[in-house]
């Protein structure tokens, strides 16, 4: 794993640390195996059901085909998230040469998410503070877009119809911050410390129903940390959650 490799490059691996890393690796392999086995089993059963129903009951066959497509899409999302996370974990934090207009990235993400929010009856707002030039950071635009998409997508998924998701941006103390707040179901306080772990789900049944892979927030954390920033969360069950990302502002740009 990336941490083990990093330790070896430094020339030592403590025995206790090595055991901890091996345990993390075993848990990861077990989790990935389980997460891949579940949709694979569903696909097999659905394909068999479709084969049996295709001539005897065309209406039921169409239902099986729709479910087959849904499970295939979920499996594809899981594989994509696993590849993204593996790439992020293998990267060491570095100084990115390119500057990125984070406000522009937010605008693109919101434009893509508006249709989903509208179909669910959720109001999606953007509130900006400060000048546009104050949103410049150094980084990887693709990774930053993935991070923000995960946060907004989660907020829309876990907010009931009639609710609101608000994205706020600004700049203070040499940092750019983006805040994603929702009026959703919220997260119990005792579960907040674990929400950025791989495959951790606050509500497994609800996560599966919404198509979540259990990797989105882990990807968010790695992207933010690889850019030298931090992510925090505040939440109240039944009232909603607020995720705040802080990233270093590119020096010499804007106020």
Annotated CATH architecture of the largest domain: 2-Layer Sandwich
How many angstroms separate the termini?
Answer: 40 Å
Which ranges are low-confidence, i.e. pLDDT below 50, for 5 or more consecutive residues? none
Sum up the overall morphology in one term: globular
Assign the structural class, choosing from mainly alpha, mainly beta, alpha/beta, alpha+beta, or little secondary structure.
alpha+beta
What is the average of the pLDDT values?
Answer: 85
Helix percent reads 40-55%
GO molecular function: calcium ion binding; phosphorelay sensor kinase activity
Organism: Rubrobacter xylanophilus
InterPro entries: HATPase_C_sf, HATPase_dom, His_kinase_dom, HisK_dim/P_dom, HisK_dim/P_sf, Sensor_HK_Regulatory, Sig_transdc_His_kin-like_C
Cofactor: a divalent metal cation
Offer a few descriptive terms:
two-stranded antiparallel sheet, five-stranded mixed beta sheet, 7 helices, globular, 18% strand, 2 domains, 255 residues, Helix Hairpins, 7 strands, Heat Shock Protein 90, alpha+beta
List the topology elements:
Elements: H1 2-9, H2 15-56, H3 58-90, E1 99-101, H4 102-119, E2 123-128, E3 136-138, H5 141-157, E4 164-172, E5 175-182, H6 204-210, H7 216-226, E6 230-236, E7 240-248
Helix pairs in contact: 2-3, 3-7, 4-5, 5-7
């Amino acid at each position: 794993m990336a941490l083990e490799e990093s330790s070896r490059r430094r020339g030592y691996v403590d025995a206790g640390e090595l055991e901890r890393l091996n345990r993390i690796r075993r848990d990861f392999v077990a989790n990935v195996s389980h997460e891949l086995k579940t949709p694979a089993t569903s696909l097999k059963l659905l394909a068999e059901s479709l084969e049996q129903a295709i001539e005897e009951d065309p209406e039921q066959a169409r239902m099986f085909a729709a479910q087959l497509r849904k499970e295939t899409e979920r499996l594809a999302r899981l594989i994509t998230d696993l590849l993204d996370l593996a790439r992020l974990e293998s990267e060491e934090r570095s100084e990115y040469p390119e500057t990125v207009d984070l406000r522009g990235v937010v605008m693109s993400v919101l434009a893509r998410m508006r249709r989903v929010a509208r179909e669910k009856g959720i109001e999606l707002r953007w509130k900006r503070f400060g000048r546009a030039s104050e949103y410049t950071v150094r980084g990887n635009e693709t990774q930053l877009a993935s991070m923000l998409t995960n946060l907004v997508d989660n907020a829309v998924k876990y907010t009931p119809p009639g609710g609101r998701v608000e994205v706020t941006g600004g700049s203070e103390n040499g940092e750019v911050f983006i805040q994603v707040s929702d009026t959703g179901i919220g997260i119990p306080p005792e579960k907040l410390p674990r929400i950025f772990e791989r495959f951790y789900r606050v509500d497994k049944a609800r996560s599966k129903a919404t198509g979540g892979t259990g990797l989105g927030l882990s990807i968010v954390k790695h992207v933010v940390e690889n850019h030298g920033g931090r992510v925090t969360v505040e939440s109240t069950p039944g009232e909603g959650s607020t995720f705040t990302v802080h990233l270093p502002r590119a020096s010499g740009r804007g106020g």
